Every structure is written in structure tokens, then in C-alpha cells.
Queue: 2 jobs
Job 1
Amino acid sequence: ETGVTQSPTHLIKTRGQQVTLRCSSQSGHNTVSWYQQALGQGPQFIFQYYREEENGRGNFPPRFSGLQFPNYSSELNVNALELDDSALYLCASSLRLAEYNEQFFGPGTRLTVL
Amino acid sequence: AQTVTQSQPEMSVQEAETVTLSCTYDTSESDYYLFWYKQPPSRQMILVIRQEAYKQQNATENRFSVNFQKAAKSFSLKISDSQLGDAAMYFCAYTGGVASFNNNAGNMLTFGGGTRLMVKP
């Protein structure tokens, strides 16, 4: 069973640029969630994708957008980067069932905005 | 909106001893799930233990157990026989139950700010 993977591991961008982060979900999972974890804080929910559609969104502006592909992998895109976007971005996959489903986290992408 | 609060930024425990990490939460839902996640330095976040709100019995997983007080909205984690490998950030997290899930909120996790646990040899 392959776990959740994310790429790249680290990324450095400058303010105003755009960035794309990638996530491959665990085998058999159909749902991907993205979280932002600022240094020294708990993760904050960005959004979730199920069947290639956004299914729930946290308090993040529209410049944070995403995609989910037919193989359930996902991308997080951030436009017009700001200094405060510097954080660890976590992807979590799960198998959507009738009720609760455990989320499995990837190792994260560390984004630094200069 | 739900909130999760961890009032202990750091905790320290001697190897082989017991430590309790605190968590309180606020919600208007009656059906929900609570979790403790462990995030070791530079490693992936993993689930330690889960508690369903409708279950009165406290969850246990080997050396890890919880004290779930639903009326007080309190959810503490007890680690017994602490080991060096237990050193990590611990996050308390919440997700809604069926009603929240069906309202297209998915099963988003709301995390607390974390507690850094240090284990002394």
C-alpha cells in the first residue's frame, strides 16, 4: 500500500508569484484535503476535493484553488503569493464512506515566500 | 464554528512516567469525532487515537488513552510509560458527524494549536 506523497519537499518563491503543489493520495482513497500549517501552529483546513469537485472550504481567499484528477491525485495552486503564505502545506487523503473516514497525511511541502 | 484549544504549549515528562495533555473544544453539534494526532519533527502526522462523541467509554490504544468529558467539552490524552519516541508535537482535532458531513462540509479537521512533548531520558 502506497502512502500519501507530496511534491516538492521544499519550495522558495517571491511575493506575487504563483505556485503549484502536488499530492498523490493513498491507494484506494478518493478524497483529498489540504491544510496550511504556519510555523508553531496547528494545521488550518483549506479545502477538500471529492470526485474532482471542491467539497468544503475553509476561510481562505479565492487565490487558493485546487484540482483533483481522475486518479484522485490533487493540486493546490496559490496565486499572488504573500509573505504570510509561508507555511507547511499538508495533504491528507481518505476514503469517503457514509460517515467518518480517517485522513492520512503526507509529509508536506515547505513553502517559503520571500 | 467549532474551536479547539490546547492550553499547554509545552510539556515535559521523564521516560517511563505518565503525562497528560489537555484539550478543550467548543461545538453546538451533538455528533462528532475527536482525535489526537502526533507530528514528530520533520515527519508525517499520524493518528494516535480517536473518540466518537456518542460513545461513553473512553478510547484506549496501548499506552495511549483519553479522558472524554462531553459535558465539559474536554478531551485529554494520557500517555503511560513514556518513551523517547513519544517526543513530538501533539494536536487535538475535531470533525463533525453525519449532519456536518451531509451538509457538504466533508470531514474537515479543526486542530488545536498543539502541545510540544519532550521526553527526558
Note: The first strand of chain A starts at residue 5 and ends at 7.
Job 2
Amino acid sequence: GQQLNQSPQSMFIQEGEDVSMNCTSSSIFNTWLWYKQDPGEGPVLLIALYKAGELTSNGRLTAQFGITRKDSFLNISASIPSDVGIYFCAGPHAGNNRKLIWGLGTSLAVNP
Amino acid sequence: NAGVTQTPKFQVLKTGQSMTLQCAQDMNHNSMYWYRQDPGMGLRLIYYSASEGTTDKGEVPNGYNVSRLNKREFSLRLESAAPSQTSVYFCASRRRQGGSNQPQHFGDGTRLSIL
């Protein structure tokens, strides 16, 4: 079945550093969604990508929809302590786009 | 604008007890979802409701039932709680717009412990 593989699994960085994480699959996706989950809260949508090659920014965050449609990347520039959390990628299930396939997340820790 | 509201936020149950988790959304969304989140397992879909009056099983439906009470509300019931159901439960909703993949919006979760 469809799977999304996120890497790295976790990251520990210094404040001010740039962060890069990715999400890959052996299947093609026509939408990529990036969510962030703060401790004790539900996931919140950061960026939605709908077109292969698309590059979209949201403040210090930039996400790209890979040309092959089998991967997506999320970059965070100049990290700050409030960037701490778990970042998830997700994409619609091939047989039923009402459901999402989720990656297992990248846990980010930022040292002030 | 409340978005997706889940109640309760925390609950402790004894094995065998029953419990209903409530979820309501005020965004006029068509679809609603229940997930559970366990360490290292990500988000796993329990049940979903594509529209009012319909419900379907997700990946891990065993031990749960759902009711789509109306367009706003979607409840999750544990008839006989088991320790394996200790988890954080999230409700989500989504607007249906033609064939486009609209993102899901989440509540803040219910933290459930079963002793």
C-alpha cells in the first residue's frame, strides 16, 4: 500500500540554523500537505502543494512539490525556539482522496 | 472562530468502562475524521464520515463505533475500553470542494488513559 517516508526522524539544531526535511514515497501523489504539531495540540496545516514543481512559502517556511510527484521537501530558515514540534507530511489516498496517508513525522528540537 | 472542538480534553477510564468522545466543527465542513496518535505510530485513521449520514472504517476501527449526529458533530464511542486504547484521539474536519484535495483541520485532542 501507499506509504510516506519522512526523514530525518528527529533533529536537534541551534537557534538560527536552517532546517531541511523531506517526505518520499514509491507512489505518485497529486497533493502534498505539511502540518506542524506543537506539544499538547493538534496538527496545524503549514503549506499545501497541488502541482508538481510548485514552490510555496509561508513566512520562514518553504515547501516544494517534487517533479517526480514522489517526494516533497520542507525548509525552515533561521530557526527560532517556537519552531519546536513534530512536522508531518500527508497526501491523499490513491483509491479514496477523502482519506490521507501520513508520514511518521520529523521531530524538531531547537536549542536557544 | 472555534474551528474543531473536542471534549473532554482528558479522561481516565477503567478497563471495561464505556465512553463517548465528542467532536463539533463550526466551519460547515462536509467530512469529519477520528484519528488516534501513539508514540512512533503517527496518526492512524479510526473512522471517517465523508458527509452527513455516512460513516466508513479507517485503518484501526476495531473496538470503536461512531455516530455522525448532524453536519456539525461526529462522536467516537468506546463500548468496553481496553488498555490498548490508551492514546491521544484527534478529530478533524474537511471541506469538500469538487475533486480537489482540501486539507483537514484538527482539534486539540482528547488524552485518554485506560487502567
Note: The first strand of chain B starts at residue 4 and ends at 7.
